Amino acid sequence: MDKFRMMSQLLQSNQESFMNGISGIMALASAQLYTSFEFNCPCMPEYNYSYGISMLIIPPIWFFMLGFVLNNNVSMLAEEWKRPKGQRRKDPSVLRYMCVSISQRSLIAPAVWISVTLMDGKSFVCAYSMDLDMTEFGKNASGLSDIELVQTLAKIPCKSIFDSPHVVSREAAFRYIRCISQACGWVFLMIITTIAFLVRAIRPCFTQASFLKTKYWSHYLDIERKMFDETCTEHAKSFAQVCIKQYFEGVSGEIPSFSTQTRADDTVDGEEKPPTEEDKLYGVRRQDSMNIVLLDWHACKPPLSLKKFAEATGPNGVAHKKFDLSDKNHLNGLKGGYVNPGLDVAQNELDSCLCGLGLQHSDCDMSEEDIYRLPLNVCLLKWLEIRSVCPMCNKPIVRLQHPDAPRAAEGVQDPEEV
Amino acid sequence: MDKFKLVLQYFQSNSESISNGICILLSLISVKLYTSFDFNCPCIPQYNKMYALGVMFVPPVILFFLGILVNRHTGVLMEEYIRPLGRRTKNPAVVKFLFSAVMQRSLLAPMVWILMTLLDGKCFICAFSMNVNPKHFTGMPNSTGLDLIKILAKVPCKEDVIFKNSSFRKAVSRYVRCYSQAIGWFILLILISLGTLARILKPCFNYGTFLQTRYWSNYLDVEQKLFDETCVLHARDFSRKCVMQFFESMREDAALRLPLSYAFRPGQIHSEGAEEEDDRLHGITRIDQVDHLLESWYECKPELDVTKMAYKPKVCITWEDHNGKVLFSEV
Question: What residues contact residue B86 under an 8 Å CB cut-off, 6+ apart?
Fold first, then answer.
């Protein structure tokens, strides 16, 4: 159990903390980008404002979109939104949850950039130096025309080309604007933190029950997509191997041996043999059926409802009936003794092990499920080879016989009784 | 790599130590934030105080909210507080215990920030340099023609020209900083003595109930974690079976399939026992069952009684030997 716990922790941590790690790395990258970026205010009246404001706004937008690009769940969200209904209904709250969680993670790096820019203050100074209140800082402004005044003010952000200290004290103005910028930065951080607090800490008051559901199903969609990709990859591998094998055998002219028949006897001791490549194909063996599989996965998603193994449907969609021994048609072709697995029996009857046959016993209420879930987890056939009594109530079981053969055992009331 | 895994496992095993670790990390972040923040006093009479007190108190509020957000116990606390009664009674002492734990841990990083600003002194100098009585200090620059207030407001700014060759600025800032550091140390002393008193006196009051509430709050945390893990595992198996079922439903003719290949069911291909996988699904195999399960986990929490599961009678095979004695099988 511990291994499963670690595995599940790794799984869950892989998915969410992977995305958390990515957003953390992007936040650090944005801070580093800012420090290594050489801010270069043009110090000209026409361009100051646009340069300053675009340095504040455009990189966050870029980081936000980068967050969407790097997030795997975006394509999953798009697919889930656009797919036809199929056999599975669509849940809009799951889509909303995924959208919100993707946006939350993508908003971290832009917020870091904006707050670092505001704390540093250079872009604010560049954008707003021309709006400075001259009565406060101006020493001697009367001698200058408006245009010259504006040009002087525009040079405030650039230390090296500022040439009129007699008009306005550059350091005081710089300091003042920077102080306003830092105040804006702190207010921005405060607003963001308050919103995040309200969303995460107060949300459980309102939607906790449905929140568990949407979280589960969004996680399920992600895992299902991964599983489907894995299964397709494995299928492709097996397909390729079988195809090549067939080709070689076709070229060499040999008839492929039905070696699986002899292998049936080897499995009496209950060991699990590794499955052959053909089994891994799940019966999908042709190009067009594989194409149908891939198309249908999107066009007509299967319902979220697993069938029990004993009720697996046949290829015609006919539900497999319980193997009712009173139906004599099924007994055609069966030799004496137990059902010989080497025979060519129609698929419907032997779709599962005889354990799932639903042997009817009039005296004990063993249902089909009970038989299938025999604690020994071995086929009923093997148990009957060891001891021919019903495992639950110890009544003797008559051997399965051809309907025309004479009855051999005693103590059997019913020809249907096994 | 193994040692790292061990350390990680140790930290993850105890939810309290995770919270402590996160709390300490947040304090370190606040220290780093303070040292990298460029304090920029405006040196203008109207704005000095506002700026300085803003820098002293707004970041602690932000850090406090952050501390509550990243703490795992917040979610546990909120859920326990607002859940419907279900089959499990609510214990208000547990809620109070969780609340006080969350508050204590979240208050550490803000206090660190406030103490750092006080011990460093820049905020105090910026805010209160105008309240100093200049008569105590010599060397004040009178020749600039500015008011007293404006001169005093410029004290925090080193590079202003009016303070060249004057020891006035340094004297005033030293004086104000001394006040600031005294207040900082005093607050630190009070906090530490409060903490010590609380630790020493705690066993005197209701230690038994304290142990109980601590156990149950830890239990709630672990239960929520395990529920999430079980959901994750269940989703994994559910999806695997769903995908395989989909492939099986696309199966073409199977007349060629040799009969005993039934033994190699898709579930067993991954070399895990089919029984194990069925166990992990716990019989929940449909969308409405999953929805119902998740809803009733919140609406109607199960009772705290695991006698049925712990002492489940096991199925075994019995038969009679030739003497008529009943034999049991060990399965």
Answer: B299, B300, B301, B302
Enumerate the residues of chain B whose CB falls inside 8 A of the CB of residue A88: 287
A305: exposed, middle or buried (Cβ count in 10 Å: 0-12, 13-18, 19+): middle
CA distance, residue B41 to nearest chain A CA (Å): 7
User: What's the rounded Cα separation, in Å, for the pair A25 and B325?
Assistant: 71
For B33, the token pair is 């934030």
Contacts of A12 in chain B (CB under 8 A): 228-229, 232
pLDDT at A147: 84
Angstrom distances, CA of residue B240 to CA of A237, A293, B49, B245, B246 = 18, 16, 64, 9, 10
Q: Using one digit for the tens of pLDDT, what is the confidence trace for B77-104?
A: 988 888 888 888 888 999 999 999 999 9
Please report the pLDDT score of residue A408 as a whole number: 40
Shared domain for A2 and A132, answered yes or no, is yes
Bridge partners of A138? A168
**Angstrom distance (rounded) from CA A222 to CA A300:** 18
Token pair 């501390």: residue? B67
Taking CA atoms, A89 is separated from A221, A375, B211, in Å, by: 13, 38, 49
Nearest CA in chain A to B253: A315
Asked whether the beta carbons of residue B245 and residue A391 sit closer than 8 angstroms, the reply is no
> Whole-angstrom distance between the N-terminal and C-terminal Cα of chain B?
39
Mean pLDDT across A78-98: 85
Give the nearest partner residue to A315 out of B240, B245, B254, using CB atoms: B254
A320 touches A348 (CB < 8 A)? yes
Query: Under an 8 A CB cutoff, do B251 and A8 touch?
Result: no
Kindly state whether residue A200 falls inside one of the protein's structural domains: yes
Residue B23: per-residue pLDDT: 92
Of A84, A82, A126, A65, the residue nearest A299 (C-alpha): A84
- Given a cut of 80, is residue A325 above it in pLDDT? no
Residues B147-159: pLDDT tens digits? 788 888 888 887 7
Contacts of A235 in chain B (CB under 8 A): 247
Residue that is last in its domain, among A206, A234, A265: A206
Subunit contact A204:B157, Cβ cutoff 8 A: no
What are the structure tokens assigned to B189, written together?
A: 């002393």
Enclosing domain of residue A234: 220-257
- The answer to whether position A47 is within a domain reads yes
Q: Mark which of A257, A282, A316 sits at the end of a domain.
A: A257
pLDDT-flagged residues of chain B (< 50): 253-274
Inter-chain CB proximity A227 and B243 less than 8 Å? yes
Q: How much is the pLDDT for B11?
A: 59
Specify the pTM. 0.72
Domain identity same for A192 and A46 = yes
Q: Which residue has the tokens 């769903």?
A: B242
